[in-house]
Write a structure and sequence with these properties.
six-stranded mixed beta sheet; T6SS immunity periplasmic lipoprotein; lipoprotein; 1 helix; 119 residues; mainly beta; Immunoglobulin-like; 12% helix
Length: 119
């Protein structure tokens, strides 16, 4: 038993961290979406294919506003009308052209979109 106690840490040190270099691979890269007057577009390029999307509020009042999985949408079907409130932090996760992306933002008191840059 004591032999395994010493062998296990050595094996872990030799193999390294299995997820190293892939941190955040599930959420993907940070990329903004188009937001204007209650209209949200995950892409405005007709050649792009949107296959998954979630737009939700963040924090203790988490609520999913838009959800789609296993879809195959291109512009203009990649745009949606949604009611966004000022002062609420929103998070977006989506798959575009088989690549995962995320974005976080808030609407200020004047209705301007402020990119939260991962904050």
């Amino acid at each position: 038993m004591i032999k395994y106690f010493f062998v296990l840490p050595i094996v872990i040190l030799l193999t390294g961290c299995p997820g190293k270099g892939r941190e955040g691979a599930e959420t993907g890269e940070r990329q903004s979406i188009y937001i204007d007057n209650g209209r949200v577009c995950f892409t405005v390029n007709k050649k792009d294919i949107l296959s998954r999307y979630v737009l939700s509020t963040n924090g203790s009042n988490y609520k999913e506003l838009l959800v789609g999985d296993g879809v195959r949408l291109s512009y203009p079907d990649s745009c949606f009308s949604v009611s966004l409130e000022k002062g609420i932090i929103y998070g977006v996760s989506y798959t575009l052209n088989e690549k995962n992306y995320y974005y976080t933002f808030i609407l200020d008191n004047d209705g301007n979109v402020l990119d939260l840059k991962g904050e």
